[in-house]
Automatic annotation (TrEMBL), chain A:
Subcellular location: Mitochondrion inner membrane
UniProt-listed PANTHER family: ATP SYNTHASE DELTA/EPSILON CHAIN, ATP SYNTHASE SUBUNIT DELTA', MITOCHONDRIAL
Organism this protein belongs to: Theobroma cacao (Cacao)
Keywords: ATP synthesis, CF(1), Hydrogen ion transport, Ion transport, Membrane, Mitochondrion, Mitochondrion inner membrane, Transit peptide, Transport
Function as written in the Swiss-Prot or TrEMBL entry: Mitochondrial membrane ATP synthase (F(1)F(0) ATP synthase or Complex V) produces ATP from ADP in the presence of a proton gradient across the membrane which is generated by electron transport complexes of the respiratory chain. F-type ATPases consist of two structural domains, F(1) - containing the extramembraneous catalytic core, and F(0) - containing the membrane proton channel, linked together by a central stalk and a peripheral stalk. During catalysis, ATP turnover in the catalytic domain of F(1) is coupled via a rotary mechanism of the central stalk subunits to proton translocation.
Domain called ATP synthase F1 complex delta/epsilon subunit N-terminal: residue spans: 74-145
Family: Belongs to the ATPase epsilon chain family.
Transit peptide is among the record's keywords: yes
Alphabetical list of HAMAP family matching this protein: ATP_synth_epsil_bac (MF_00530)
CDD domains per UniProt: F1-ATPase_delta
The protein, known as: ATP synthase subunit delta', mitochondrial
UniProt KW Mitochondrion keyword: yes
From TrEMBL, chain B:
Cited PANTHER family: ATP SYNTHASE GAMMA CHAIN, ATP SYNTHASE SUBUNIT GAMMA, MITOCHONDRIAL
Protein name: ATP synthase subunit gamma
Keyword Transit peptide belongs to the record: yes
SUPFAM superfamilies named in the record: ATP synthase (F1-ATPase), gamma subunit
Membrane topology label: Peripheral membrane protein
Assembly: F-type ATPases have 2 components, CF(1) - the catalytic core - and CF(0) - the membrane proton channel. CF(1) has five subunits: alpha(3), beta(3), gamma(1), delta(1), epsilon(1). CF(0) has three main subunits: a, b and c.
Function: Mitochondrial membrane ATP synthase (F(1)F(0) ATP synthase or Complex V) produces ATP from ADP in the presence of a proton gradient across the membrane which is generated by electron transport complexes of the respiratory chain. F-type ATPases consist of two structural domains, F(1) - containing the extramembraneous catalytic core, and F(0) - containing the membrane proton channel, linked together by a central stalk and a peripheral stalk. During catalysis, ATP synthesis in the catalytic domain of F(1) is coupled via a rotary mechanism of the central stalk subunits to proton translocation.
């Protein structure tokens, strides 16, 4: 019995030591880009405690603005449950802004764009990958880095057209029979998303 | 020897052993006191107390080991989620910068903590940092309010800052954490609380043994405009063109709300990871401690047992030699 216990203990300790020595691979070590004014004012008022960390110490550093227009644009496409594309160099991205489809090339003017449900297409040479986004924001920075943050996204080939039609019909019917404002708003959102999906599949 | 064995068997043989007044036999080994008087006034030492303690310490060790395993499996599940959500707040910090030293009138401190205990010191750390931030941001016209997530921070902050608490949210982890749930929560907070700056205090999961207390700042749209005009980190915000929406203010409003829900999602996940990791190490040290205690008790038990055997032998031998004369 004791031999088993010691084996179990060894297994758990080796597992924990392995975990201890391996930090997160997505985490960079704290870069010294910390907010010095915050730290100083903290130390003055609360000298006994270490100041807490701030997000800037965990940021992966961003490239500086180049003097000439680069050839490729760097795309970061993030969702709450995954980073779909992270620092991927592509030729062009087309984002579904509320004002319409917006094409982004390297050297695009810095922009903050609110997105509506629609297709995001990423062009890399001759490959085009299309995702259907629910909504979100897109930031295009002066250093030709585009950040696209969406709440939900699916690759377009995973969308079932039959279900889209069914959903569209169902929500249109619900919009017709809606009584309260909340129901109307929910039905309207459903209709918007499904009609965008529909046009995405057919268009 | 046989009597010692009988004593070890304990209760099972108790009804069979009847106290015999003639010999130096021991009375029933059920006596709970350390020194009991038998029928002829013979003394013997009971190991019952030590044995009871050993049993309870062994049970505690088993329980804490099981809790550690449970925490390890929960950690594994939530670690991937937290790792995947790390990309979510980075675009916002890249755009709007990180301004923890911003000076505003209405500060709201959102403290993220756990509902269950036995997780080491992470909740106390969060509460200490929240109180320190309160002190840091106090000024003649400033007011600081708390929004509390989790039972443990509530218990600590209700004691002395009850009037500053705006909102308390508990039972966050009843259902597995999802972005929908957190965005509803964020919506709730944004609707009910007036703020110029939101400071979210949580424990960032660095590794299984290290948790870094972190403060993320989210500014309200008016303050973002103010800081953009003032220059500094948000100075080049004006160079960004706004696509969509009627006015810049509207877009900034949506942006702030989206930023808050994204940052909240990441911070809640990180804190949950830290909680499980802290519980793992707390339970691990607890089972190790119980093991040490068990070793010491075993030594005491053996010593007591051997002492009583020796006493018995001495009494028998001296009795026999007294008879011989």
């Amino acid at each position: 019995m004791f031999r088993q216990a010691s084996r179990l203990l060894a297994r758990t300790t080796t597992a924990t030591t392995w975990r201890r020595s391996r930090a997160f691979s997505t985490d960079l070590p704290a870069t010294p880009t910390e907010d010095s004014t915050f730290i100083e004012s903290w130390k003055k008022v609360i000298p006994n405690m270490d100041p807490p960390k701030t997000p800037s110490s965990f940021m992966t550093p961003r490239p500086a603005t180049p003097s000439s227009i680069p050839s490729k644009i760097t795309v970061n496409f993030v969702l709450p449950y995954a980073s779909e594309l992270s620092t991927k160099e592509v030729d062009m991205v087309i984002v579904p802004a509320t004002t319409g489809q917006m094409g982004v090339l390297p050297g695009h003017v810095p922009t903050i764009a609110e997105l509506k449900p629609g297709i995001l297409s990423v062009h890399e040479g001759n490959d085009v990958t299309k995702y259907f986004l629910s909504s979100g924001f897109a930031f295009i920075h002066a250093n030709s880095v585009a950040d696209i943050i969406a709440v939900e996204a699916v690759p377009l080939d995973c969308v079932d057209p039959a279900l889209v039609q069914k959903g569209l019909a169902e929500f249109t019917q619900r919009l017709g029979t809606a009584t309260s404002d909340l129901e109307k708003a929910e039905a309207q959102i459903g209709v918007d998303v499904h009609s965008a999906l529909n046009s995405a599949l057919t268009g | 020897m046989a009597m010692a064995a009988l004593r070890r068997e304990g209760r099972r043989f108790a009804p069979l052993i009847s106290p015999r007044p003639i010999t130096a036999f021991r009375s029933s080994p059920l006596a709970p006191t350390r020194e009991a008087e038998g029928p002829i006034g013979v003394r013997y030492i009971s190991t019952q107390v030590v044995r009871n303690r050993m049993k309870s310490v062994k049970n505690i060790q088993k329980i804490t080991k099981a809790m550690k395993m449970v925490a390890a499996s929960k950690l594994r599940a939530i670690q991937t989620k937290a790792e995947n959500s790390r990309g979510l707040w980075q675009p916002f910090t890249a755009l709007l910068g990180d301004t923890p030293s911003v000076d505003v009138k209405k500060n709201v401190i959102v403290t993220v903590s756990s509902d269950k205990g036995l997780c080491g010191g992470i909740n106390s750390t969060s509460v200490k940092i929240s109180k320190a931030l309160h002190k840091l941001n106090s000024g003649p016209e400033n007011e600081t309010k708390y929004v509390i997530l989790g039972e443990k921070a509530k218990a600590q902050l209700v004691r002395d800052s009850k009037k500053d608490i705006e909102l308390i949210i508990t039972e966050l982890q009843k259902n597995p954490l999802s972005y929908t749930q957190v965005s509803v929560l964020a919506d709730d907070i944004l609707k009910n609380v007036e703020f110029d700056a939101l400071r979210i205090v949580f424990n960032k999961f660095h590794s299984v043994v290290s948790f870094l207390p972190t403060v993320s700042t989210v500014l309200s749209p008016e303050i973002v405009e103010r800081e953009a005009e003032a220059g500094g980190k948000l100075g080049d915000l004006d160079s960004y063109e706004i696509e969509g929406g009627e006015t810049k203010g509207e877009i900034l409003q949506n942006l702030t709300e989206f930023q808050f829900s994204c940052v909240m999602f990441n911070s809640v996940l990180e804190n949950a990871c830290s909680e499980q990791g802290a519980r793992m190490s707390a339970m691990d040290s607890s089972s190790r401690n119980a093991g040490d205690m068990l070793d010491r008790l075993t030594l005491t038990y053996n010593r007591t047992r051997q002492a009583s055997i020796t006493t018995e032998l001495i009494e028998i031998i001296s009795g026999a030699s007294a008879l011989e004369g």
